[in-house]
Amino acid sequence: MRLYLTIAMLLASAGTALAHGMSEADKQRILEAGLLEYVELGAKHMLTGYDHLLFLFGVIFFLTRFFDILKFITAFTIGHSITLIFATIYGIQANYYLIDAVIALTVCYKAFENLDGFRKYLNTGSPNLLWMVFGFGLIHGFGLSTRLQQLPLGNDGLIAKILAFNVGVEVGQVVALAVMMVLLAGWRRSESFSKFSYASNVGLMIVGGLLSLMQLHSYQHAAFSEEFPISKDDHYHAHEDMKAAEAPPALDGYQKPLNLGPLTSPK
């Protein structure tokens, strides 16, 4: 039981720590923002989007030719630009926890493909990677759109704001890719790359799976909060208190009492 409580605590706290939605400060600042602020916000969102970055890292992990990198990143960029722009314009929404859970699974897929998993474990060839990267770009773009739609966009200059945000996303993506390419180029020249490339992709797949579980954990609390014995806010503080106390048993040391309602004497 203690193990399950510890896992739940880690999932909730990590999900909160790694969340990259639109903060209240961003929402307030954007009320009077110009297009440059939207560019900055888009770049910031991409550079803090750990799931997007992990997927890109998996895509370029074994790519050494500039043309190949350009081809796959262009496919990804076209894909996420399509859904980011059109889903935001037409107000198409979905629960962002679920979208982020699917995005995390795309990280697992790319790591599995890097490990030649289709041939080794499924005895089949992998699907066309270029089309898969494009399709995953559509999913990532929808995730970006759900976050952008958290902002008070208004109707004035809506398309210009969306395009400015998308430009910022591309700027952030270029910066992130440049850093990844430099690091990977240096790593490939060392002996450790051949030794640890397999382990790195296994780790990438595990991280993607954990991120997906974290998002599903957050969705469960957001969508079914009435099924939990305490509120979402109290639940978070319970996790924090458990972590501080290193927790045995479940809610020992939790200072905020549970509201169990008025007690009535049996008749």
What would a concise description of this structure say?
The chain has 267 residues and is an all-alpha fold.
Global geometry: globular
Low-confidence stretches: 1-19, 246-260
Give the integer mean of the pLDDT values.
82
Rounded to an integer in angstroms, the radius of gyration calculated over CA atoms is 22 Å
User: How many DSSP E strands?
Assistant: 0
Q: Beta fraction of the residues?
A: under 5%
Helix percent band: over 70%
Structure notes:
The protein is mainly α and 267 residues long. It has helices at residues 2-18, 24-29, 35-47, 50-60, 66-89, 96-114, 117-121, 129-148, 158-188, 192-223, 232-245. Helix 1 (2-18) crosses helix 10 and helix 6 (96-114) runs antiparallel to helix 8. The longest helix is centred in the C-terminal third of the chain and has 32 residues, at 192-223. The radius of gyration is 22 Å and the shape is globular. It starts with a helix and ends in a 22-residue tail after the last helix.
Describe this protein with a few key phrases.
267 residues; mainly alpha; 72% helix; globular
Topology, pairings included?
Elements: H1 2-18, H2 24-29, H3 35-47, H4 50-60, H5 66-89, H6 96-114, H7 117-121, H8 129-148, H9 158-188, H10 192-223, H11 232-245
Helix pairs in contact: 1-10, 1-11, 3-9, 4-6, 4-9, 5-8, 5-9, 6-8, 6-10
